[in-house]
Amino acid sequence: MKRILSIAILLTCISTCSRGQGPQGYWLSDNKNGFFEGLDNMEMRIDGAGNTLSGNVYYIWEHGIYYQDISLEGRTLSGDSVELNEMELVTNRNGKFPGDCKGIFHLYYSKQGKKEYLTGIWKKPPGSKLHCPDSKVVFYRMTPDGSPLRLIAQAKSVPPKTVAQTGPAPVIKAAAPPVAALVVAAPPPDPDSLRWQLFRSRKDSLELVVPHLSDTVNLEFYDDGIIDHDRISLFLGDSLMLKNYELLATPKMMQLILPKGKMENILALYAENEGDIPPNTALMVIYVDDKRFEVRLSSDMKTNAKVVFKSIQ
Fold first, then answer.
1. Which residues lie closer than 8 Å to 197 by C-beta, 6 or more apart?
2. Is the backbone of residue 100 left (phi > 0), alpha (psi -120 to 50) or beta?
3. DSSP string for residues in 151-216
4. How far apart are CA 149 and CA 129, in angstroms?
5. Would the CA dihedral through 26, 32, 33, 34 be positive or negative?
6. Measured between alpha carbons, how far is 70 from 56 in angstroms, rounded to an integer?
7. Band of the pLDDT at 66, cuts 50, 70, 90?
């Protein structure tokens, strides 16, 4: 009787334990055929429980400098299969895929030893008139514990342009501030200048809220991606703090003294151009109160990217 019970337990483990943790988690694909030709790779995150699934797929070029993030909704099917529909374009960082080519993944989950796979096909959306060829695809588990690659973490760290990150900014790490040129005080606004008038005419996109105690803020600015001659100006409130500066791989360092007595100070990045590869993109590193924050700013000729410094005194 014990032997029969042991065999039953073994058979149960073979049929269930070998399946791993199922489709939920993080996946990588390095397909470069068909519709996916020209990509560095694709990454996928699948969430959900039971028959209902959701998540995101990331199409990545140039080591993550360019990518698209598309939301997914789907379901589990019989026989370890999943169906995932590409829904909405969440983030587009100079992506190359046409929006009408959002399609459907039909994938089968399998496990070989310690490796897990999602194998199947991406099918173009019904009725699409664009050239979106059906393409075979294979995803595999990135790491044994399903943790994401760095590129997905980077992609997710950039807030979508339509969503304001109004909560406290994420602290990257404590760090000593860089040595920077001191900006003692903001100069008076110049409402007669064309740059000031254009700055005020553009929409604002809230990118980050930084809580602070100290009024001294150290900043670093880099070109975020390929160095493509992006030029920026910076406004603190209505005051021009940096004029027509070309972003480089080396940092532009500044130190701001925020006006006292104000609960909020707005630092806005104004695009002087969109470089060789639109839009204008900048990486800003912020040092305040012995903390370090990072934010990737994207702006164009119609939109300023702004960071709000919120006093918590």
1. 191
2. alpha
3. HHHHHHHS--TTS---SPPPP-B--PPPP-EEE-SPPPP-TTSHHHHHHHHSEEEEEEEEEES-SE
4. 34
5. positive
6. 5
7. low
Res 29: pLDDT: 85
Q: Which residue has the tokens 């789907």?
A: 74
Write down the CATH superfamily of domain 15-157: Quinohemoprotein amine dehydrogenase alpha subunit, domain 2 (2.40.128.120)
Read off the pLDDT of residues 234-280 as tens digits, 9 standing for 90 and up.
Answer: 999 999 999 999 998 888 999 999 988 889 999 999 999 998 888 99
**Cross-strand pairs, 297:** 282
219-233 pLDDT tens trace: 999 887 778 889 999
- Relative to beta strand 252-257, strand 239-246 is unpaired
Closest CA to 285 of 142, 202, 176: 176
Looking up tokens 């110049």, which residue turns up? Answer: 190
* CA-based nearest residue to 57, from 49, 48, 65, 47: 47
- Kindly report the pTM of this predicted structure: 0.47
3-state secondary structure of 97: coil
Domain parsing of the chain, residue ranges: 15-157, 181-311
What three-state secondary structure class fits 298? strand
* Torsional class of 139: left (φ above 0), alpha (ψ -120 to 50), beta (otherwise): beta
Residue 78: the pLDDT is 80
For position 269, what pLDDT does the model report? 96
The confidence score (pLDDT) of residue 172 equals: 45
